[in-house]
Amino acid sequence: MFTERTSVGLDVHARSVAAAAIDGVTGEVFRARLVPAPREVIGWIEALPGPAAAAYESGPTGFGLARALNAAGIRCQIAAASKLQRPAGDRVKTDARDALHLARLLRLDEIVPVRVPTQVEESARDLVRCREAARADLMRARHRLSKLLLRHGIVYSGGKAWTQVHDYWLGKQSFPLAGTQAAFEDAYQSVVLGSRTPTMPMFWLCGPRLRIPWWRAWTPRRGRHNRASDWTIASPTLERRSVMRGPWGVQFCGPLTPFADGLAGELGRLGYAQTTARGHLELWAQVSRWLTKQGLEPSDFTGPEIDRFLVVRRRTHVDLVSVGGLAPGLAFLRCKGAVPTSPEPVVTAVDVALGHFRAYLVGERSVLGLTAASYAERVRPFVQDRVRGGVLDLGSLTAGDVSRFAAARLPGLSQSSAKSTVTALRSLLRFLHVSGVLPWSLTAAVPAVASWRLAGLPQGLDPAQLQALLSVCDPSTAVGSRDLAMMLLLSRLALRSAEVAALTVDDLDWRSGTVMVHGKGNRHELLPVPVDVGAALAAYMQDGRVAPLTGRALFVTIRAPRRALDPQSVSGVVARAAVRAGLGTVHAHRLRHTAATAVLAGGASLEEVGQLLRHASTSSTAIYAKVDHSRLVALARPWPTAGGVA
Prior knowledge:
six-stranded mixed beta sheet, Nucleotidyltransferase, domain 5
């Protein structure tokens, strides 16, 4: 009977494990693609809300994972594959869907488990299978040799075949053509190798381990093949003894060989697909060979040596040829201490001053962290210009210094960038005054940027354009379900791109149908979730969302390494969808205008629009009066003509 909180389904393959887990308390679905190593699977399950139970289908991967999970205190069942229930009409079969299906069946106690044999029992079964396979191989080899001889009219008539006499007769056969002779020798050697039949002592079946070396259990028959001088065996294992075949068949040699398994596990944890992870492993196998050829150690793989290697890499490859391609592996090796970390950047007096400025904005002015960082970068040239002889001098600032900086800096910027720079500069001067660096405020010395308030019109999409934008998202895919949920939040709840990016799983309250929005000025507001938005969010969380590496962000990247989307990425999603829909340039904020103009056209007042947009001041909402056509008609004066009024 299922009593655990979390049910885990595993679709186990030779080179990957697709994992899915269902939290029975919150309903959250966790997904991951792991390396088929028990420690990786156990580590991922232990990070889930516990206690947890797991299940996977019986198959060629065996019972080792089940034993490891049970030994770690995680109840594991192996499902009989022939007795698994399948929904009618379900024709889409993927590893992720199979894992989620197993997790659901485990929670419903609808899995027919098979017994997990002990290691001794499995060892006996392997030995029996080995003997049967050897007998079948020998039979095929004998048939191949007999048919070759028969095709050339050679038939043995000296009695029973495959005896010492028959073996002596085979040794006397020869052919005039080199090709036929080579084929005969190959077929004969196959018979020789297959004739090494294994013996099976009975104590193997009951002992805890093999009592004698395996090679002593193979007793060669007497005959010509006992003379080692008559034939040789080409063993790939012996030839490649110095090369280790790492995960996914990638061959490692050199100083990075001990880190191959760990690197594969890290790539799986980051969420890379198997083909992509294999490409990264091949990259690091090349690095290991290059280090050996250059006589270097992993600790020597720093900036100059990385550049030298990339020059070599670009001669033969077109992918993973930059420092960015090396980044996942470098991070892992630095964590293990094999590769030295990058030197810490030198912290200057300018960095310290801007750090205090950011802390002031976040702590005293309730500015978001991203906005505070943007303000600090915009005023960095101004602060750096105050360095005199290696010493930062902000206490001697004058109004003339502020005016000269503005006159030199602002003309080269766009209007929006100039306005942001002026705002950041005023905030910095205000900070310097309240912190005691300046005896008086110099904010009045900052010039204003020429612009006209409410000069433009809010450009929203009409219903047909909005429908076209939403229709290009395919909800049957992970990317499409994520994009659809984000654009519905933008167009129905009038959220900003930064507010969508800041949402976490914990902000959704499914019982009350509300979402907690983290808005401008660190304000937190509870909004109702419409039915269509809730359905899109539920579909995305169930089938599309994969938990990020850190945090509990709601919207994450689909490609590895999985991380939370930032505001620019949210706006980029809308822009790409608009291009596919043939709408031209449309960004996330335009969907906010769409929501406002839609409710205004439905008869809402400007005050109600301001509440939907969560404006702190009614002056921010006043621009929408320009698109309130129903109310503007009453204010429009008749157009004069020569004969009277039109």
